[in-house]
C-alpha cells in the first residue's frame, strides 16, 4: 500500500514536469470576431480533425510589437499569426518571421500575384469600404466625396483610427484618382492635402479600432456611415442587419500567415499554413465570410452567389485600389505619428 | 472652606429640563437647577448619570427635549452655541494643532473682530495668567499635557465670558499634575470671579474645587450642596456611597423620634441613628457611617451604639491604618485608625469593641440588595 | 573597582564596554538587514531595475553603431556636401556586405534610420540587397547613386554620420517636440508635427481636473461617513470600496453602456424630455472624466476618511464655543487638520491619473488621450521602444518633480494616509 502511494506521488510529480516538457497546443492568432469564427470553421477545426493537433485561437488588433517582443525575448508563444501586408514585409526585413518555402504550398504560381512572399502566405483578400445602414439612410453615399459631405448626409462617420487608409480616403474624397493616390501621398504637399481634407470632417468622425465596431456603430445609429472591413459588414448582413457596402474607392489588402521566428511548434505551424492554403479550405472560408481566396484554384470553387460579395469580384474592383505595401513600410511610422499629432489637436 | 457666597444672584437656571436621545429613555429626567453668579459649581456623578448632557445643553451642543434654560434671564434654547458667549474647556484640550498657542488664544478674539493691539494684549495677559508667557509661538504638539491644559484654560477665558464650562478637563493628566491643576484652576476662579460649571466623575476633585457640588445619578440631581455638607450630611444612600467612603448596614426602623430613630440591624442588635430618609416604624433602611467616625476599644466606651466585632484584616496606608471587621454579619465593615491610635496588641481574629455616636450614623433609604 | 575618569569602562570579561556595545548593535543591525533583504532584492528586481532600464532605453542607440561602426567613424571626415569620398564608401560597402546575412541587424538599423528620414528603411534594405559592389566597376559614388538616386542627397549621409554614438538624445528630444534641422541645430517642431508637449500638458490638466472632482465629491462623503455611527459607516465604506472588486475594464465597459448615445442615461434623459437628441457623453472628455473620477474616488476617500476619523469632534465644538460660526470654524479649524489626508489623497489620485491608459483609450476621443496612450502606441504599434521609454521617463520625471513641489509647499511629513 505504502509503495503504491509513493508510486502515485512520483507519477503525479512526473506528470507535472512532463506536462511542461510536452509541446503546447498550436497557437494561431487572428483579428477575432467574425473573421475568427470563419477561420475556426474553415481552418482550425478541419485541421484538428485531420491531424489530431489541437489549435488554440488568440485574438489581437494587429499589435505586431508583441511578436517582436516575443522573438527578441526568445519566448515565442504564438505559432501562426495573421498579419496585414505591410507587416509581412517589415517583419520579414527585421528577421522576426520564419521563411516559408513556397514549394510547401504548391508554388507561387498557384496563388494570386503578390500574395506569397518570403515570410508570408496570403490567406485572403479583404477590403476596407464605405458601409452604411440602409434602414437609416434611404439613399446612401456612392463615393468618398459623399462620405465627406456632411450637408447631404448629416451625422457622424466612423473611420479606422490611424493614418493607413484614412489618408488614402481623404485624397480620394478630394478628387485624386485611385491610381494617383500613392503618388500624391508620397509628397509633403500630398500629405498636407490629405490632412487638410481630414480637417473638414474631423468634428464628425468617430474613430474605431476593432473590426467589430463599425457594424455595431451603424446598427446603434452612433454613425450614419463608416469605413469597415467588408467581411464584417457581410457577417452583419447575414445576421439580418440591413447594412450596405460601397465598393467604389475601397482599398483592398491581403492578410497573410506568418510564423514568428523561434516558434517551438514550427513543424506544426508549417503544416497548418499548408493546410489552410489548400483551395478547398480557402473556399470554405470565403463561404463563411466575404473575403476572397488567394489560391487561384479556390476561385473557381466558389459558389456563384457568393462571388459578387467578395472584394475580388471584377465589379467590386472597379474604382478600388490595392494598398501600397512598400509605401506604408517606408512612411508608416512618420505618417502614423503625424496622424497622432493631428488627431490629438 | 468657602461656603456658598451670600450673593444669590442667579446666572443660569434650568427649569424642568428633560433630554432623551431615543424618545424612550430620558437621559436627563427632570432638572431644576440655579447656578449663582461667580460660583464654582461641579456636576459630579458616575458615567451615564446625565451630568455631561446637562453641560452640553448649556453649551448649546445638545438641545433640551423639554424645559428651558436661561442665561442671565435670557432664554437660551434657541440661541446657537457660537452666540452664547460661554467658554469651554474640553477633556482632550481641543487645542487647534495647526495653530500656535498664541494663535489659539487669539482665535476667539479675532472672531470678535478686536483690534490687533488689543488681541495681542489680551493674549499676553491670558498667557501670563497660566504662567506660559514664553510659549506663545509653540505648537500644542510641542507641549506637555499640563501645559496644554493651561492653554485650553486660557483660551476659554481670554474672551472674558461670564460663564466657563469644563468637561472633565483634568481627566487625561496623571494624579500629581491633576492635583496641582485643581488648585491652579481654583485660584484662577477666585481671582477672576468668573462662574464655572465643572463636570467630573472624580469626587475628590469635586470636593477640592467647588463652592457647590451637584451629585447626579440616573438623570437627576440627588443632592446639591457645598462639599462639607455633602460629605457630612448626605441625603441618601447614593450620595453617602458616592462621596467618600461609608459603611452601609441594612436594618429596619423600630420607631422614629424627631430627628433620631431606633433601628434593628439585619445581622442582629439595635442602634439609634439620625433619621434622614425614614418616616415611620417598619421601614427598611440602610444605615451609613463614615469609617473615621467609628471608635475602637477604649474609645468606644460611652458611645451610644456599642458592639463587638472581629478583626478580619489590617491594611496599612502610611498615614493611617484600615481595619476590616466582621460585624453584624457584615464582613466588609471598614474602620480608619490614625497610626498613633493603633494598639500593637491587635491581631487578626481578635474581638474588639466598636462604637459611635448616634448623630454619626444616618438612617437612609434602603440600598437595593 | 578602581575607576578613573578617562579609563574606558570594561565589561565583565575585560573588553571595553563601548566595543561590546558596538558589537551588539552591529549584530542587531545585521539581523534587521537580513529581515528586509528579501524585500530589498524584490524591490531591486521589480522596481529599481526596470526604472533604470527604462531610463537607459530612452537614450540607448545601438542599432546603427552595431551594424556600421567603421562607416560612421569614416564619415566623421565628410564635409557635409555631396557624397562621401571613395574610402568611406569602401568601408560602407564592406560593412553592408558583412551585414547581409544578419537580417535582424539590418532591419533594426533600417528602422532606426527610417525614424530620421522616412523611406530610409527601404533605401538601406535595397542597398544591402545590392551588395557586394565591385570596386572595379567604376567609382563607388556612381554605383551608389545607381542603386538609388537618393544616395546623391546629402541628408541621408548626414543622418548616417550622426549615428556615431551608442547614446542619443533623439527620443527625449522628440518627446519634447524638439526636431533637428538640416544644419544640426535643434528647434521646436512645427504645428503639424508638435504633439507631445501638448499631450503632457493635457495629461497634467486632466489629472488635475480628475483630482479636483475626486476632492469635491470625496471630501463631503468622507466627512459624512466619519460622522455616522460606526456600523453604518462601515457598511457605506464597503459600498465605497465596491468598485475595487471589479476590474477597471469591466467598469469602463459598464460606463460605455451607460453613457453611449443609445445608453441608459441618454435614454432616461430623452424619455423624461430633458433633451431631444442624445447628449454626447461617451467618447469624449466628459466620459473620461466621469469614469476616471468614479474609479479613483476611493483613493481620495480612504486617506481623507482615516485622517478625519482621527480628529475628535471636540475641535469643532471648541471653535464654536469660542464664538465662531460653524462654517468658518470648519474652514479654519477642521479643514486645515485634514489637509494631510487631502494631500495624500490628491497626490495618490493625481499620480494614478497621470498614468491612466485604459479609461481614456476606451471612453475618450483622440484628443482625450494621455501620455500613456502614446507609450502604448509606440510599444504595441510601431515597436519603438526608444520613444516609449523616453515618454515614460519624462512622465516619471514630471511626477517626481510634482511630488518634490508638493513636499516643498505642503511638507512631505504632512502627508498622511491615516
From TrEMBL, chain A:
Signal peptide limits: 1-23
Keyword Signal among UniProt keywords: yes
Keywords assigned: Signal
A Pfam family reported for this protein in Swiss-Prot or TrEMBL: SBP_bac_8
Protein name, as recorded: Putative spermidine/putrescine transport system substrate-binding protein
Organism: Rivihabitans pingtungensis
PANTHER family: ABC TRANSPORTER SUBSTRATE-BINDING PROTEIN, SPERMIDINE/PUTRESCINE-BINDING PERIPLASMIC PROTEIN
The organism's place on the tree of life at top rank: Bacteria
From TrEMBL, chain B:
PROSITE patterns according to UniProt: ABC_TRANSPORTER_1 (PS00211), ABC_TRANSPORTER_2 (PS50893)
InterPro entries: AAA+_ATPase, ABC_SmlMolc_Importer, ABC_transporter-like_ATP-bd, ABC_transporter-like_CS, Mo/tungstate-bd_C_term_dom, P-loop_NTPase, PotA-like, Transp-assoc_OB_typ2
One Gene Ontology molecular-function label: ABC-type polyamine transporter activity
GO biological-process terms attached to the record: putrescine transport
Domain ABC transporter: 12-243
Enzyme kind, highest EC tier: translocase
Catalytic activity field: ATP + H2O + polyamine-[polyamine-binding protein]Side 1 = ADP + phosphate + polyamineSide 2 + [polyamine-binding protein]Side 1
Keywords of this entry: ATP-binding, Cell membrane, Membrane, Nucleotide-binding, Translocase, Transport
Superkingdom of origin organism: Bacteria
SUPFAM superfamilies in alphabetical order: MOP-like (SSF50331), P-loop containing nucleoside triphosphate hydrolases (SSF52540)
GO cellular component: ATP-binding cassette (ABC) transporter complex
Keyword Secreted listed: no
Protein family according to the UniProt entry: Belongs to the ABC transporter superfamily. Spermidine/putrescine importer (TC 3.A.1.11.1) family.
Function statement: Part of the ABC transporter complex PotABCD involved in spermidine/putrescine import. Responsible for energy coupling to the transport system.
UniProt-recorded name of the protein: Spermidine/putrescine import ATP-binding protein PotA
Name of the coding gene: potA
UniProtKB/TrEMBL annotation, chain C:
Main location class: membrane
GO cellular component: plasma membrane
A Pfam family this chain is assigned to: BPD_transp_1
Residue ranges of domain ABC transmembrane type-1 in the record: 200-406
Cellular compartment(s): Cell membrane
Keyword Metal-binding: no
Topology of the protein relative to the lipid bilayer: Multi-pass membrane protein
Family matches, as Gene3D superfamilies: MetI-like
GO biological process: transmembrane transport
Transmembrane regions listed in the UniProt entry: 32-56, 204-226, 235-258, 286-307, 339-363, 383-406
UniProt keyword terms in alphabetical order: Cell membrane, Membrane, Transmembrane, Transmembrane helix, Transport
UniProt keyword annotation of Transmembrane helix present: yes
Similarity comment text for this entry: Belongs to the binding-protein-dependent transport system permease family. CysTW subfamily.
Name of the molecule in the record: Putative spermidine/putrescine transport system permease protein
